[in-house]
């Protein structure tokens, strides 16, 4: 699991939803690569609902600033972010770490490519120049080009499916401070 400690250390609250098929909610789904199957479609819908319920829960807490959430996605969390965030106005800023489009076919109703133009929150995409999961030309660039947000930025770093830790931390915290406000 990716460490989010830098977000917590910065003073931000962090929630990591255990969505359908992950960790103790395992249900036999063996791959998160998109597919054109009813089972995969049902999972994508469930993931979206899990996120919505998570935000609803946060909205009921007195110790959380409401309607000013940031989304931090890593790898699969970056890939699925358009489906999660496009219809969720409570996300006010997004940082996607090593993400892009998957090339496998799926139903249009759940394909992230169809949600990218609906993203409106400021988006920062941090990618590797030699990422074999999300290649620059066929995955990262089309993903970024389709993002609908008026405020979007991409930064690429030498390497594969990672961004140097210091850059990831600094860029992410600066982006959230800029678009969500500094932590008090």
Commentary on this structure:
A 4-stranded parallel beta sheet has the order 1-2-3-4, sandwiched between helices. The longest helix is centred in the first third of the chain and has 22 residues, at 38-59. It has one domain (18-180): Alpha/Beta hydrolase fold, catalytic domain (Rossmann fold). The chain has 184 residues and is an alpha/beta fold. The protein is 34% helix and 14% strand. Helix 5 (136-146) links the parallel strand 3 (123-128) and strand 4 (152-157). It has helices spanning 5-9, 38-59, 76-79, 81-85, 136-146, 165-180; strands spanning 69-74, 91-97, 123-128, 152-157. The radius of gyration is 16 Å and the shape is globular.
Question: Short description, anyone?
Answer:
The mean pLDDT is 94.
Uncertain segments are none
Give the number of domains: 1
Q: CATH H level: which superfamily?
A: Alpha/Beta hydrolase fold, catalytic domain
- How many DSSP E strands? 4
Number of helices: 6
Fraction in beta strands? 5-15%
Spatial arrangement of strands, main beta sheet: 1-2-3-4
Shape: globular
Quick one: biggest sheet? 4 strands, parallel
CATH architecture, by name, is 3-Layer(aba) Sandwich
How far the N terminus sits from the C terminus, by CA atoms, comes to: 28 Å
CATH topology, by name, is: Rossmann fold
Query: Which class do the helix and strand fractions yield?
Result: alpha/beta
Pattern of helices and strands: HHEHHEEHEH
Helix content: 25-40%
The CATH C-level class name: Alpha Beta
Query: Could you report the average pLDDT, rounded to the nearest whole number?
Result: 94
Instruction: Give Rg in angstroms.
Output: 16 Å
């Amino acid at each position: 699991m990716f460490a989010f400690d830098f977000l917590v250390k910065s003073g931000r609250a962090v929630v990591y939803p255990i969505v359908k098929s992950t960790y103790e909610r395992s249900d036999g789904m063996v791959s998160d690569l998109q597919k054109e199957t009813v089972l995969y479609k049902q999972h994508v819908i469930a993931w979206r609902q899990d996120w919505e319920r998570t935000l609803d829960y946060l909205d009921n807490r007195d110790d959380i600033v409401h309607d000013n959430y940031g989304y931090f996605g890593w790898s699969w969390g970056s890939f699925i972010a358009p489906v999660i965030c496009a219809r969720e106005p409570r996300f006010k800023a997004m940082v996607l770490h090593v993400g892009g489009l998957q090339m496998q076919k799926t139903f249009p109703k759940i394909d992230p490519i169809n949600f990218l133009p609906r993203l409106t929150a400021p988006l920062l995409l941090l990618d590797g120049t030699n990422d074999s999961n999300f290649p620059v030309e066929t995955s990262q660039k089309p993903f970024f080009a389709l993002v609908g947000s008026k405020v979007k930025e991409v930064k690429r770093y030498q390497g594969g499916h990672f961004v140097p830790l210091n850059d990831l931390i600094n860029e992410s915290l600066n982006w959230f401070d800029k678009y969500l406000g500094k932590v008090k």
